[in-house]
Amino acid sequence: MSDADVYFRPFLNTDPPLLVQVWNRQPSFRGLTTNVTPDLFETHVFSKSYFDRESLILAFEKASDGERILGFVHVSFDVRADLADLDFATGVISQLRVIDCEKRVYVEDQLISRAMQYLAGHDARRCYFGGRFPQAPFYQGLYGGSRLPGVMAGDRYVQDALDRNGFEVERTIGILERHLDDPIKGPGGRQLLTVRRNYLINAIADPIEKSWWECCTLGIAERDRFQIAKKKNNEIVGSVSYWDMQPLGSLISCNCRGLYDLLVNQEDQRQGLATHLVCESIKRLASNGASMVEAQTDIANVAAVRLFERLNFVMVDQAKSMVRRVGPC
User: Fold this and answer.
1) Are residues 149 and 193 in the same domain?
2) Would the pLDDT of 329 be above 70?
3) For 36-51, what is each residue's pLDDT tens digit?
4) Which residue range is the domain that position 62 belongs to?
C-alpha cells in the first residue's frame, strides 16, 4: 500500500479503545504505563476541562478488509505563569504514539506536522514535547514519573521522530529514586542543629490545591504537603509536595510517591533547609507505608543534584526536554 492509503482525522467519542490499542502495542520502557484501559484515558485525558477533540489526531490505514489505526498525536498548550489559565503562545505535544509498521516514520512525521498546524492556528510560537513541569496538561501518571520531564530516554522511536522534525534539546532531566526501606539519615553537623533548633516541619494530608493548574493535573491524586516554618513566629519559609504516582507508580514500587514543587524562600536558602525538609518528609512518608520516592531535576542544577545525593537518591534514568518553533523547521 502507498502513503495515499493513510488518512488522518480528529478524535471521536468511539475512539478510546483504538487509542488503548496503540498505547499497549508500544515497546516497554521505564516511564510508560502498560496495559492501560479506556477508563484510564478518561481520567487522565478526556475529563480535563481544556480537552479539545481537534487537538487529538488519529492516523488510519485503508485496506481491502476495512481500516486499522496506526497511531495518534495529542497536542495542547502550556500554562500561564500564574497557573490560572492556558498560555496559547506555547504548545505541548503531550503524546506521539505510532505502532511499529512499515509506514511508521511517515505517520510520525505527518502527525507532528498536523500538530504544528493546529498550534499555528492558535498563534503558538514554540512547542515542547511531553511537558516541562508544571507545563504538563495531560498523561500525568501514564508517562514520565513524578513529573512529565519531556521524552524519556527509552522512548527511542519518539526521540528519533523529534530529531527528524527539528526539535532540539533544551535541558536534560535526571530521574532519581530513593528506596525507603534503607535507613534515612540526613547530613549532620552544626548546621543541622541550628535548623532543628529554629525550624519546625508541619505535615498536611490531602492539602488544598495551590492553583487551578494543580487542581486540573493532580487534583485526583492522593497528595501530601510538608512545610518548614520558623519556630519564633510560625512563618512558612518552604514546602515540598508528594503525590501517589498511580497508575505508573505501581509498575515501579508498591507504594511510590512522586516529589514535586520543592521550594524554599530565596532569602532563606543555603542554610540546609531544603535538605532537612526533604529528609524529614520522606521519613514521615516511610512511617506511613511509602516504599519509594521519585524526584526529578535538571542535571545542570548542581545544587539540586547534590541535595538528592546527600539523601541517597540514585539517578536511574534521564529524559530530554525538547523544543522547536512552530512553523517550518
Assistant:
1) no
2) no
3) 999 999 999 999 999 9
4) 3-173+320-325
